[in-house]
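User: I want to check something. If I give you two sequences, will you return the structure for each one separately, not as a complex?

Assistant: Yes, each is folded on its own. Here is the first sequence with its structure:
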Amino acid sequence: MKNRFLALLICAILVFSIIPFGKNIKASQTNNAKQLNTPEQMAAVMREKANNNTARMKGKITQSQVNETIKQKLIVKTRDEIENTYGANSVYYYTVGNYQILFYDTAEEAKNACEKLKKDLPGTTIFQDIPITLKEAAKDNGSDEVAAYDGIKKMGMDQLKEEKDSWKNKSAKVAVIDSGINVDHQWFKNRLDRENSINLALDEGNEDDKTKPAYNDTKQGHGSHVAGIITQATPEEVQVMAIRVFSVLGTASYATITNAVDYAVEHKADVINMSLGFEIMSGFENDQITLMDEAFARAFKANTTVCAASGNEYTDTSKSYPASSPWTIAVGSFEPDAKGNLIRSDFANNGELLDFVAPGRNIYSAWINGEESTNTISGTSMATPHMAAAAAYVKMKHPDYNQRDVYAAFKDNAVDLGESGKDTEFGYGYVHLEKYNTNEAAESKDGKEYQAISAPAQINKTMNDSGKSFTIDAKITRGNGNLTYETTNEKIATVKDGKVTIVGRGKCNIVIKASETKEYKETEEKVTIKIDKGYQKIKVPVTSYKKYVSDKNFKLEAYVEAPGDGKVEFIANDNDVVKVSKNGEVTILGPGTARVYAVATGTNNFNRDISDAIMITVEEDKKSDPDIKNNAENTTTATQSTTTVIQNASTMNTKIAVTRVVVKKLKAGKKQIRLTWKKQSKVSGYEIRYATKANMKKAKRIKVNAKTASKTIKKLKSKKRYYIQIRAYKTNDHKKIYGNWSIKKTLKTK
């Protein structure tokens, strides 16, 4: 997350104080977040907001308009009330993901609010929602006449499907997060989980026929093709839960897809198929990844296996998400060449994060518009459902398996391609399950199985944990080897007997190995340790000061608590009360109240932090107003905050009270300022003074009669800041008795 020092302050006109971006002070823009307890409620709110936006748009809805709608919301990972949302029109708290959704009127407003909130809430996951399209999810071959490749047969799942007796009284549910499904297609009769299939997309769906469910795939075909591969590869005991996230334009949002993962988990999906993704481009922030990774972590905890397409950009899988997530199984694509040799598909992403490959070129499957419609297309989107189907078989046989266990089963039945062992072109190879019923490690050359090591895919810490230790919750769920641990970077984290100690900021892996035994192979798993910037805490010994105009300069105190390592600097709101240097030296300028903040500057290891307001109140000196024109021998003066009282010596019983004037409004004009005040009764008139300096040196004065309550000060300089005060006076015995000057106001002319 980007860190910038607080450089800009917002000027408030009617009150001469400023709230800096860096501190979230309770203001008029507070929110009472409405609670959303289910993914369905979350989807309904996002769809309602999207519909409200499209209703205001004229003509046919374009892709740019859809993108604008998606970008009008922010995700903020906190359960605490966000005191200043910077203009959100509504706020919701999503209990499943423990984050808030802030909606704005425009994408630009959301973008600006995002920048300010990141300064207010350093270290908090905050991002603007992003559009995700199906554009690169599949490679259309353009014709059904292309020779199709039978990937199901290649993986041996055609034989498994025929062994019907083996699957009786067993079941598995595969959630397909995609464009929906052709509900009329013959392939999906008795195979579609109609009770739990749902439309989570931002549009209503199924515009052509409202008699059909909203998750019906009418425009894209992608989801139907993916689901068709799964149903053709598996027996009827495997049900498909269609979760529609892509609109009729083929667009989804990051928040929508994350919500779909939560929906699949909450509705007991055994496997999630994600034939989707997007390339991680420059500027893509870690916050988006963090949010969906947390949803994947919830899936892992629920024993749900997630298969994700590696992508079709012919680049490294590390640049494609969610395949690059440590919580998913990344699936690439292979195909036969002209000689029958198995090669990696030229479009498929590769790299160290690639786990397995599956058939992805020229795959024949279901399509839209008809009960028997089909299409032959290519892509890692087509390879992924082959692996999701394989995972369904494993889960039917072992319902208690988590993703690590399923992964081990895949390795037991993997046909190695390319270089020996796991490589960057094919991962561990492709899974062949023809003999899985009778031999769970049929492809193992030595007859041994891989062990299954249950451990979290990633553990997140911050630099506040520096020097602290924790134990990785790792255990062998299948096998009998001994566990050993090793770090890939001791400058980030060290490990001994499973106990990890945080050293520095960054990311490394803890490699966990289960030793080889007579029955099992040596097995290795990795746990990613991610150390983010920490949060600093500023201590301010004195938070409130009361001073007088004549008091000498003084210095503020603040310090950063360990382990924070930022430098303390002070900033003040725009005011004419005090001047504050970065090191806390305070110079008094005039009466009033000012807010000052202590800032712990951001460093490589810690986010910037800002203190609560340090309040400085400066009062007029306890002495007579020098402008009172009475003879000292004949008068006694008492100066108060609002009233000046004069006792006439000649009568000794007549008291004259002059109340301080209250300024109601300042309005800037071209080379002029209009001053409006609360009219007082029984005064003889008013005096206004104005100057370009806060100390009112060389101030000009204007007399105003008692009947008026406003005055336009003319012949001022253009675009110049002026300081203005007003006071009332009464005439007694031919002498003017003045009240105190009003609170100083400031405004810039036009």
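And separately, the second sequence with its own structure:
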Amino acid sequence: VRKEIQALPSYKNYAQAAPIWSSLVDAEGRDTKASDLNFIYGIGKIFDPGSVVREGEMVMVENTASLPQRLLSAVNIVNDKGRLTPEMRSSLLAEAQSRMNAFNTALRDDMRSYRGIARRYGINPRDIIPKL
């Protein structure tokens, strides 16, 4: 049953996205090119956990900013301060949190079903439901 649970899309999505989410939260406050890259790749992966993030998706993330934010980003590039403004990071992080909440809800709904199955068969749910 444990393997069946681990094969569920809700489990896979959450399991793949959770460490990325932690990395995004950690990278939010650092204003370096490396953390910008980490942030952009992380956002792309959270929005599609099973995918490979490509350059086009990075541009799409950058273009979610308003024109003034994009201009400020261009100035920051010239000044070698990075690409993402704190406002862009906060906005993208809020969207990523929304996605993580959706992954969590889907996983909890699926796990509720498996807890019920376990109880009906006299099995402790902790024995079959993996901990994330």
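Because they were folded independently, the notes below concern the second chain alone. The first helix runs from residue 2 to 6. The mean pLDDT is 80.
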